[in-house]
Amino acid sequence: MTEPPSPDTATPRRTVDVLGVHFDALTIPEAVHRLVTLASGTGSHLVLTPNVDHVLRARRDPAFAALCASGSLVIADGQPIVWAARLLGRPLPERVAGSDVMPRSVVAAARAGLRYYFLGGNPGDAARAAAILAAEAGRDGLCGVDVPPFGFEHDAEYLAGLIGRIRAARPQIVYVGLGSPKQEFVMQRLQAATGVPVFMAVGVTFSFVAGTVRRAPRLLRRVGLEWLWRLLCEPRRLWRRYAQNLAVFPWLVLRERLRRPRAR
User: Fold this and answer.
1) Is the CATH code 3.40.1840 the one for domain 15-210?
2) Ramachandran assignment for 252, one of left (phi > 0), alpha (psi -120 to 50 degrees), beta (any other)
3) pLDDT per position in the chain (264 positions), as tens?
4) Cβ–Cβ < 8 Å for 180, 56
């Protein structure tokens, strides 16, 4: 475990290294509090939600590894990450899924009087999710919604317009749901161009909140099998990725665990 200073907070930041990616050792409520604190403070911060696929990508892609290392809040989105940390003797308090943190943080941000911007998701889902969360919070902090077309990240004119819209909206938080790794690299570019206090990667969460995509039942989430639910829902898109992850990740964790006694 490492304890670098925690930006914009009075308490030290405690992280856990899992195969080179450093995860914040926080519970869901603590992560929500940290996110809202960052959004209320100074500087500009990335909130990242790595799972097994992200960890393996970081091992083969130096640019993605550097991006993960730049996160001010890095939460363990996958239960296998929590299991791996425990096996390596560096336990995390719990799984902190982005799909749990995002809606809670939106409600907390709205109640704190912060503004937020939704970027990405399927057409209509972000606006629908915003309305649902505003009703829960009792107030609406939404200051913009943008559902960009496919390939927009290569369109300089579109990006310039998007940057202008975000600057004009003046959000404290931009939630970005574009799928990984696109969303993370887009966040990095927008951070440099706008200086918004917080950008958070949220994947498919807009659709979960809107109810257009069904999340895994609570029991499967509790026992760490949400990944299996997603595989059953989208086998053609996900089977190859999950098969590779299942073949590689456990072996890397075991190898790391076996190396540690020799290192001592």
Assistant:
1) no
2) alpha
3) 444 444 544 568 999 999 999 999 999 999 999 999 999 999 999 999 999 999 999 999 999 999 999 999 999 998 999 999 999 999 999 999 999 999 999 999 999 999 999 999 999 999 999 999 999 999 999 999 999 999 999 999 999 999 999 999 999 999 999 999 999 999 999 999 999 999 999 999 999 999 999 877 887 777 777 777 777 777 777 667 767 777 899 999 999 998 876 444
4) no
* 42 vs 58: CA distance, rounded Å: 28
Task: Find the helix or strand (DSSP H, E) in which 263 lies.
Answer: helix 235-263
Would you state the structure tokens that stand for residue 43, as one six-digit string?
């500087």
Q: Please give the distance of CA 61 from its chain centroid, rounded to a whole number.
A: 18
Contact between residue 88 and residue 18 where contact means Cβ atoms under 8 Å apart: yes
Cross-strand pairs, 15: 2, 24
Contacts of 90 (CB under 8 A, 6+ apart): 1, 16, 17, 18
| Structural domain spans, the chain | 15-210
- Start-end of H helices in the chain: 28-40, 52-60, 62-69, 79-87, 98-111, 125-137, 156-169, 182-194, 205-210, 218-222, 226-233, 235-263
CA distances in angstroms from 242 to 120, 122, 124, 245, listed in the order given: 24, 23, 29, 5
Residue 259 has which token pair? 């190396």
Predicted TM-score (pTM) above 0.85: yes
